[in-house]
């Protein structure tokens, strides 16, 4: 069974112009440095998808891996299949895996996830059977899903189990500010089935770093976040008490708010199924900082305090 590290790195922003303004910032060298620094900091688990930057995220990772000659056994790459309406049979799934592997310049990936539960003409049964076959041929080491509800997760788990393959992960939004999975059955079902939660947007797209706030900074978010109400003054006022608590706890451990927020997610693995945050990092310093969420722990009391304030923010 594939084991994943306690933290990974998300690479949606690498090459993406639809949400993240990648081309405008001309970020190739920056994300290359983020990649290199992640490896230097011990982060070896990269999450990408065929749709990120219309393939550019996978292409960049493939190039970086080649440049530094990293052996595929020393990194774990997770990518995703998007069940688009014109993909209607098992061959379409196999072709997508081939295309992803070509962009990544790899023969195998550690994890292949179905990006969305809506699969139009391909049934979940066909999807899961095809992916189980791909595990057997070795092109993917593990199967995951993303954005699946508790019942959809159970269904995927059943189909895979019939094929003798384990459902490895459900990748869902989870952070101190996004807590739906605690009450909609996803977290409980993941624990029951032994499915790992990959927590996406674990820094609430930068909000939990504390760099976007009403006072003391003029930094404004780039890309689609400009129109997100959570990044507007009213939204920022609401989360100020939580940001102050993150700073307060951070001062005790000499850690940043981002590191406390990520450590809180990792802490949830103690009582739930394993929770692995995959923070997006675009620069070397962000990658280094996020890696610093590992190797220490907040206390049980701090876990409760953060959990309570996060819920009401
Ligand atoms: N499966 C899905 O449907 C799905 C959906 C969303 C995301 N994901 C995955 O999850 C990953 C992470 O989610 P996300 O990118 O949406 O949100 P996130 O990880 O919560 O936030 C990432 C953004 O926060 C800022 N940041 C990160 N680390 C920082 C640090 N240490 N200090 C200061 N700023 C920092 C950066 O933006 P700025 O510097 O511009 O502020 C970065 O792009 C994605 O890359 C992707 O792999 C999956």
Structure description:
- The protein is α/β, with parallel strands linked by helices and 313 residues long.
- The protein has a single domain, classed as TIM Barrel (Alpha-Beta Barrel).
- Helices cover 42% and strands 11% of the residues.
- It has eleven helices and eight strands.
- It has an eight-stranded parallel sheet with strand order 1-2-3-4-5-6-7-8.
- α2 packs parallel to α10, α8 (233-253) crosses α9 and α8 runs antiparallel to α11 (300-312).
- The chain is globular.
- It binds NADP nicotinamide-adenine-dinucleotide phosphate.
Observed structural traits:
8-stranded parallel β-sheet; 11% strand; 313 residues; alpha/beta; 42% helix; TIM Barrel; binds NADP nicotinamide-adenine-dinucleotide phosphate
Average residue pLDDT: 94
Please report the number of helical segments: 11
Order of helices and strands: EHHEHEHEHEHEHEHHEHH
- Tell me the CATH topology: TIM Barrel
User: What helical percentage do the residues reach?
Assistant: 40-55%
Characterize the largest beta sheet: strand count, sense, and whether it forms a barrel: 8 strands, parallel
Q: How many domains comprise the coordinates?
A: 1
- CATH class call: Alpha Beta
Please report the distance between the alpha carbons of the first and last residues.
38 Å
* CATH arch. level architecture: Alpha-Beta Barrel
Say how many strands there are: 8
What ligands can be seen in this structure? NADP nicotinamide-adenine-dinucleotide phosphate
Which parts are unreliable, with pLDDT below 50 for 5 consecutive residues or more? none
**Spatial extent as radius of gyration:** 19 Å
The CATH superfamily is: NADP-dependent oxidoreductase domain
Shape: globular
Strand order of the largest sheet: 1-2-3-4-5-6-7-8
As a percent range, the share of strand residues is 5-15%
Structural class label: alpha/beta
């Amino acid at each position: 069974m594939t084991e994943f590290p306690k933290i990974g790195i998300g690479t949606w922003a690498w090459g993406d112009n639809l949400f993240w303004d990648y081309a405008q910032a001309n970020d190739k060298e920056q994300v290359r440095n983020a990649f290199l620094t992640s490896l230097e900091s011990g982060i070896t688990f990269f999450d990408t998808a065929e749709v990120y930057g219309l393939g550019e995220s996978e292409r960049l990772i493939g190039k970086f891996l080649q440049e530094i000659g990293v052996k595929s056994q020393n990194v774990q790459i997770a990518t995703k299949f998007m069940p688009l309406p014109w993909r209607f049979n098992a061959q379409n799934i196999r072709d997508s895996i081939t295309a992803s592997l070509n962009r990544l310049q790899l023969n195998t990936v550690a994890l292949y996830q179905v990006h969305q539960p809506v699969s139009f003409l391909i049934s979940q049964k066909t999807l899961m059977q095809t992916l189980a076959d791909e595990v057997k041929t070795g092109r993917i080491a593990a199967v995951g899903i993303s954005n699946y509800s508790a019942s959809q997760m159970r269904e995927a788990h059943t189909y895979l189990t019939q094929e003798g393959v384990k459902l490895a992960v459900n990748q869902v939004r989870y952070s101190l500010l996004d807590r739906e999975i605690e009450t909609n059955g996803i977290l409980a079902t993941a624990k029951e089935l032994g499915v790992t939660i990959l927590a996406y947007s674990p820094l609430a797209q930068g909000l939990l770093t504390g760099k976007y706030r009403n006072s003391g900074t003029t930094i404004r978010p780039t890309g689609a976040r400009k129109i997100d109400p959570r990044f507007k003054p009213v939204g920022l006022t609401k989360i100020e008490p939580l940001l102050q608590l993150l700073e307060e706890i951070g001062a005790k451990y000499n850690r940043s708010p981002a590191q406390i927020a990520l450590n809180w997610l990792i802490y949830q693995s103690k009582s739930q199924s394993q929770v692995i945050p995959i923070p997006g990092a675009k620069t070397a310093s962000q990658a280094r900082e996020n890696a610093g969420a590992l190797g220490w722990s907040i206390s049980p009391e701090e876990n409760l305090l953060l959990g309570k304030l996060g819920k009401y923010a």
